[in-house]
Amino acid sequence: MSTIEKALQKNKKQKAENKEKSLIESAQAKAQEMANPDEAATTSSAANIANTVEKHDDETVSPMDSNIASPSTEDSKLVDTANTVVDPEDTTSKEKFIPLTQIQKDGFVSNMGRNTINEEYRAIKRKVLSNAFGPLSKTLTNANIVMVTSPNPNEGKTFTAINLALSIALEQDKTVLLVDADVLRPSVMKTIDQPFESGLMEYLLGEVDDLSDVIHHTSLDTLRIIPAGKSHHLSTELLASEKMLESVSEFANRYPDRVVIIDSPPLLGINETAILANLAGQAVVVVQEGKTSLNRVSQAVEHLNPDMAKGFIINKAKKSASDSTGYYGYYYGHDE
User: What pLDDT does 24 receive?
Assistant: First the structure.
């Protein structure tokens, strides 16, 4: 037998021995995996890391990076869902969503059945809606924009503005935008116990680019709220600006079913209110019974636009034994 033949036979024998050894090691590994699956998984994972490092050595992929696969599209959606607060009412962020459950339990208009305050505001809103969308609306400018004010502070105008907005929002075919324009003493968000970071003033100042950024959605899908924002020494000029005029025009005309309720400052001694009176088609004047004289009410009305519809709500009226409505009296008409 030649030297070459001997070498080939030796090599063939070596391969046979290596194959047999490999089969034995494989069988032992399988037995170990069955006996201790956790340890086997760790060993397998370590082997995968080592193989990946060797395979991608030129790409400078670290062992840790190579062992963490990128999530699939479906996995990414699951991650996003887990980390995102989803608002059931709207796609806006949670910071711009206002729950109204609590105030509907605290003496405000609600959809929780028939009660005195619901019935009172049903009667009031019928007059407001008739002026906004009925035959009279053709004689009014911005008939669907309603400013709620009072001769003096603390007569209940903010409470009235919120309740009127809630009542109209319960209509089947109307949407409501409640705007807190009492920029000297903002009260809407405070009354409903909600914080806010920016509002109407920030938009007029240009600190917020888009009006939609200061519109807060609520748990009533038909109601939106714009806070007043921070007080500013140029609030009169800002409310009289072309930007405010354009905003009001957008409020009035963007949606044909929309009613805009503006919580305005008191009429007496406040310049901002007279400006808002030129932008709205209707005014609801809230007067606390026994607090404001008829002379003061008359002086207050002089600050309103003579061409707008005007209504009066007598707040905190004393309830008589025969009066089932009790808390509010109201008159709503239009000056000829």
Answer: 61
